Amino acid sequence: MDPSQPDDSPERLTDIVEQVLLFSNAEAGRVVRAREAVNLDYVIDEALESSQKAVVEAHCSVEKSVDSGLPPVLADPTALKHALLNLLPLLR
Q: Where are the domains of the chain?
């Protein structure tokens, strides 16, 4: 497995399918992104958990530091997690 690639868990594959559908809708000019109050700590944990296998295989470690008083943000949680997963391989 390529260490720069995230783990291909069922949740990750579902996220990929959702992103492909969103992209196809964007190309057709009909993007609807559901925004909701998102706990960043939770989304970051999900992204780190999804990429844990790749991190271990790359002999790397990732440290997370999130302010405990940080309020939720209004965002699409799937898109936010996807963005984080795309950033993780760049952190070598």
A: 10-90
**Is residue 87 a contact partner of residue 50, using CB atoms and an 8 Å limit?**
no
CA 63 to chain centre: 16
* pLDDT tens per residue across span 28-65: 666 556 789 999 999 999 989 888 888 888 888 888 89
Contact indicator for 18, 78 with CB cutoff of 8 Å: yes
Q: How many CA atoms lie within 13 A of 89 on its CB side?
A: 11
For the entire predicted model, the pTM comes to 0.62
> Is there a contact between 43 and 81 (Cβ–Cβ < 8 Å)?
yes
AA identity, residue 84: L
CA–CA distance, 4 with 66 (Å, rounded to integer): 24
